[in-house]
C-alpha cells in the first residue's frame, strides 16, 4: 500500500474506534484529544515503512515517510533498514531466504508494534514535556506527509517541519497530561498495527507471526493470494479503498460531534 492510504487507514481506524468507545463504553474524549489521537495514529500508520531506505547523499528514494524531514528522515530510514536486516539475519532459520535489504521485516511485526506503543508511553512518562513535544512533532510530520501528500510535496519538508513543530507545541500547551500520555502511546501502537494489516492485504505480505517458527522459517510472509491481493497503486487502492476509508472517517467524526452540536442548539433527540 502507498503512504497516503496507510495514513488514511490509521486516521479512519482511530476515529471509528473512538466512536465505538463513545457509543458502547461511554468513553468520551475532548475535541483536542480526538484530533491528536487521529493525527498520531495516522502518523503511526506510516512509521513501519521507515525501514525502506533511499539514497541519503542524493536526498532521493525511500518511502513517503522517509521524505518527511528531508535528509534527516532519509538517514533514519537508512539506519532502520540496516538494523532490521541485522535482526533478520540474527533470527533467520534455515528455510528463510537470503535478503539484501530489511524492508518489511522487523518493523512489520507485532512485537515491534507493542514495543513502539509501550516505548512511547514510557518516554512520555519518564521525560515529560520534551519527550511529548518531540514525539508529537515527529508524528504530526508523518501525518501531514501522509494525509496531505500533494500539499506536503509542494510545500517541501521545511514547511512540513515548521507546521509540525507549531502543532506539537500547541498540543503540548493544551492537552492535559494525565490521559494524554497513554493516549499518544496507544495511538502510535495502533497506527503501526493498522499499517501491518494494510500490508497484509497486498501480495508480498508481512511476517506477522514473527517470532513463531514455522517449518524452519521464522519470517513466514503472510498475505492474500495473488488473485485477490491489493496491487500497490492500483485503482482499487487509490480510488475505492481511499473512498471507503474517507467515508468511515467522516461518518465516525459526524457520530462523535453530532450529539454535542445538537446539545448546543438545545435540540433533543
Ligand atoms: Zn509497509
TrEMBL record:
Keywords from the named record: Hydrolase, Membrane, Transmembrane, Transmembrane helix
Bilayer-crossing regions: 30-48, 69-90, 110-143, 155-172, 184-210, 239-262
Gene Ontology molecular function, alphabetical: hydrolase activity
InterPro entries, per database record: YdjM-like (IPR007404)
Protein name as catalogued: Metal-dependent hydrolase
Source organism of the structure: Micromonospora acroterricola
Amino acid at each position: 500500500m502507498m503512504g497516503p492510504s496507510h495514513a488514511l487507514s490509521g486516521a479512519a481506524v482511530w476515529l471509528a474506534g473512538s466512536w465505538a468507545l463513545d457509543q458502547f463504553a461511554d468513553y468520551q474524549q475532548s475535541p483536542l484529544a480526538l484530533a491528536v489521537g487521529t493525527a498520531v495514529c495516522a502518523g503511526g500508520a506510516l512509521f513501519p515503512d521507515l525501514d525502506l531506505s533511499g539514497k541519503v547523499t542524493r536526498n532521493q528514494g525511500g518511502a513517503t515517510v522517509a521524505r518527511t524531514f528531508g535528509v534527516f528522515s532519509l538517514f533514519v530510514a537508512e539506519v532502520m533498514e540496516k538494523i532490521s536486516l541485522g535482526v533478520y539475519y540474527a533470527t533467520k532459520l534455515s528455510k528463510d531466504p537470503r535478503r539484501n535489504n530489511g524492508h518489511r521485516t522487523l518493523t512489520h511485526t507485532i512485537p515491534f508494534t507493542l514495543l513502539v506503543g509501550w516505548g512511547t508511553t514510557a518516554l512520555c512518562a519518564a521525560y515529560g514535556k520534551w519527550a511529548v513535544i518531540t514525539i508529537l512533532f515527529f508524528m504530526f510530520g508523518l501525518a501531514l506527509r501522509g494525509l496531505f501528500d500533494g500539499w506536503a510535496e509542494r510545500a517541501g519538508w521545511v514547511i512540513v517541519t515548521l507546521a509540525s513543530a507549531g502543532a506539537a507545541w500547541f498540543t503540548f500547551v493544551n492537552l492535559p497530561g494525565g490521559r494524554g500520555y497513554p493516549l499518544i502511546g496507544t495511538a502510535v501502537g495502533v497506527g503501526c498495527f493498522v499499517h501491518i494489516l494494510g500490508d497484509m492485504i497486498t501480495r508480498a505480505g508481512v511476517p506477522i507471526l514473527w517470532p513463531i517458527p514455522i517449518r524452519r522459517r521464522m519470517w513466514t510472509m503472510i498475505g492474500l493470494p495473488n488473485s485477490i491481493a491489493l496491487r500497490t497503486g492500483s485503482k482499487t487502492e487509490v480510488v475505492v479503498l481511499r473512498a471507503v476509508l474517507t467515508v468511515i472517517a467522516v461518518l465516525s467524526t459526524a457520530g462523535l460531534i453530532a450529539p454535542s452540536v445538537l446539545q448546543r442548539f438545545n435540540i433533543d433527540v
